[in-house]
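re: that chain from earlier
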Amino acid sequence: MEFKYSKEIDPDVYETEGLGYGIPLRMHKDQDEEIKGTLRAQRDWTKYVQPVHGYHGNLGDPYSFLCVTVPECLPDRLELISYANEYAFLYDDWMETFDLKSDLAETTGFLDTFGAGALELKIDPKARPEKRLQAQMLSEMMAKDPKRAITTMKAWARFVQSAAKTRAAPFETLEEYMPARAVDAGELIWFGTLTFGMALTIPDHELDLCMKLARPAYVALGLANDLYSWEKERSAAIRAGQDYVFNAIWVIMKERSIEEEEAKEVCREEIIKAISTYCQTLEETRNDLSLSRDLRAYLEAVLLSYIGNLVWSIYCPRYRDF
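^ sequence. v structure.
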């Protein structure tokens, strides 16, 4: 991949806690665009949905989420994907306040935002406020890149519906949990973010292969997220009255009857297994000219997303101040 919009960060200035696997961290050169998009999303959510003050989503110091997970985002799209991702964080946090086993009416209404009308630009004035914001996002993305905007919003819709089903009941084993976690980690939503942000097009005949090849990286990314978001998610589950936590640490503790620190160590081992598998896959595909240029670029971008997400997770206020 040719690097135009990012710079490599000196590995001596950040910590990976043994999970970096030698992958270089890169950061977008224009962090101001991420700040603008993030704060705009917070203002809109406060105005139309519910107040959020001092909210911790994308932003961090010195590492903000989009700048380190999509370091090669086209500069004129960074503000927009930052808005979209902050919306996703706000939406996800609100969804975590529901008991998905019992709050069926509220959950169904909330999920309708990404239901059959996810691609509708004309919205009923009586529509839920989060639906109106979603339509506004789609409109802005369509103005920039109609084809990839539709691909992205379809992926978002599939993700939200899949994630809600996935979180509705606890998993008994880590083996069952990890594929579901890859979906919930954003395998679909992140496909949309990367392809829109970097103007990539994966040919239809390569879509299944794309998902298959990238799956280990999304497992690693999801487990790393679980490791660092555990305290936040456990707290949210308690507040929502849930008797389980959708998190690998909870699954490992229950499956193996071990304590929290031991479960975290198991999680670390699984992260290394998954990312080592992905790095091997990447070595095998990097120069495979039978694959499209954009698929190869996408696979490289997913690797940068893994290390960016890891470093952001370690330092971000989102998982430290809640």
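Confidence is low (pLDDT under 50) at residues 104-111.
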